[in-house]
Specification:
Length: 416
């Protein structure tokens, strides 16, 4: 295909890349290959609204007319098996191939599996609409569910199933929920709030064995020796990036397909974006692989610009959200190096934010039901602005005023 771009993976990143190529003025052929048969859809609702509403439909990322109207050759149900680097050609499952001039790998990630689950019925993980349909079909008559993993997706599902009347137990191997990156005060708040709606939360606990009846899971045994009845077991223990295509082709891999700040892999005419890509983040200088809609979307926009010959480096402010029961969690920045934090607001009101600092510098804000703090945080981090403790104590009005002053000073050259 002369001067064409082929995109592998029709999820958040792949679809945005196709859209951005056209928005940026690319007029060559664009082919979008996805192994799922559906029109590409939003993933976040799957663990939030979709599994609790029997009538909910997948929410398309773009309507069907977007693909035809923008001359995007979208081919659903197409699994790419191999990249022939020398021939600049893809080999497709079931035979056939497709040559490319530029290639964007947007292959996403897949749930980590639990070896002891075997192939029992009633064991689920959640990545695709097919997974969500299977969970929804069984959750209608769910009495007991065990969720393995106290990360965002596991906890979203726990709250959703509990709202539907299911007895839910969350099992987390670490001594707290939500991993190390979230402030302990938020992890403790989420823990307490889930318990208040009747979710049982067991930290520092593992599953040692599953029991089954007629090939269907019936209980989970945990490290304390207790037997937990379970009609459903949902495994939410993280994801692994889909790097196999890239790896087989000899591209550099480091916890994801390694890319530079223009999204180019170790073979420059092949780019990688979204959950599958790892890169040195401008924000910390450290290597990261992020799993968020924002990351996928901003990577895709930049990849399109790189293909059109622009040299901009990745500079988006990272952010993420999660809805767990009545808690909207919003995170901005990267807080792994936080060595001081300030809490603004009251956890007891279910509305508060945590401002993280590394030395003197603001590096991130995590909010529970305080969307204004999140939006202001995105502005502050984008400007590289660190508020004083007094400004944070003054809340949104004080922070907005401080940002306006900073923006005016940046725009106005200092008087001689
Ligand atoms: P994906 O969207 O996974 O798309 C990759 C696509 O490539 C998939 O369709 C895959 O099947 C396909 N593919 C892979 N290999 C091949 C191949 N060889 N040939 C053809 N096709 C292939 N993020 C947030 O920011 N906030 C949230 O609240 C949130 N909630 C989430 C809830 C759920 C249930 C899930 C699963 C994810 C959630 N995320 C959330 C994460 C977010 O959805 C991902 O970060 C985002 O989808 C990544 O986009 P991507 O395009 O890189 O990968």
């Amino acid at each position: 295909m002369k001067n064409g771009v082929v995109i592998v993976g029709a999820g958040h990143a792949g679809v945005q890349a196709a859209a951005s190529l056209r928005e940026e003025g690319f007029d060559g052929p664009v082919v979008l290959l996805g192994d799922e048969k559906e029109l590409p859809y939003h993933k976040p609702p799957l663990s939030k609204t979709f599994i609790k509403d029997a009538k909910a439909k997948p929410q398309p990322l773009r309507g069907e007319v977007f693909y035809s109207g923008n001359a995007i050759d979208f081919r659903p149900g197409t699994n790419v098996e191999r990249i022939d680097l020398l021939a600049r050609r893809l080999e497709l499952a079931g035979g056939g191939g497709l040559s490319f001039d530029r290639l964007i790998l947007a292959t996403g990630s897949r749930p980590r599996t639990l070896p002891l689950a075997g192939d029992l019925d009633g064991i689920f993980s959640l990545r695709s609409i097919a997974d969500a349909r299977a969970i929804r079909a069984m959750s209608g008559d769910c009495q007991d569910a065990v969720i393995l993993g106290g990360g965002f997706i596991g906890l979203e599902i726990a709250a959703t199933l509990r709202a539907g009347g299911c007895n839910v137990t969350v099992i987390e191997a670490a001594d707290r929920l939500l991993g190390r990156a979230i402030a302990p005060v938020i992890a403790a708040h989420v823990h307490k709030r889930l318990e208040s709606i009747g979710v049982r939360v067991l930290t520092a606990t593992t599953v040692t064995r599953l029991e089954s009846q007629n090939g269907h899971v019936s209980a989970a045994f945990i490290s304390t020796g207790e037997r937990l009845p379970a009609r459903m077991v949902i495994v939410g223990i993280g994801v692994v990036p889909n790097v196999e295509l890239a790896e087989m082709a000899g591209l550099a891999i480091a916890n994801g397909i390694r890319v530079d700040r223009q999204m180019r892999t170790s073979v420059p005419e092949i780019l990688a974006i979204g959950d599958a890509a790892s890169y040195p983040h401008w924000f910390t200088g450290m290597d990261v692989r992020l799993e968020s809609v924002q990351n996928a979307t901003d990577h895709a926009k930049l990849a399109a610009r790189t293909i059109l010959g622009h040299q901009d480096a990745y500079s988006a402010v990272p952010w993420f959200w999660s809805d767990i029961g009545d808690m909207k969690l919003q995170m901005v920045g990267l807080t792994g190096t936080s060595n001081r934090h300030i809490v603004s607001g009251e956890p007891d009101d279910n509305r508060f934010s945590v401002y993280h600092f590394s030395g003197p510098k603001l590096i991130g804000i995590e909010s529970v039901n305080r969307p204004a703090d999140h939006m202001i945080g995105r502005k502050m981090l984008g400007l590289g602005f660190t508020p004083t403790d007094e400004m944070i104590a003054g809340g949104a009005p004080a922070l907005k005023a401080a940002i306006a002053t900073q923006a005016a000073e940046t725009a106005q050259p200092a008087a001689e």
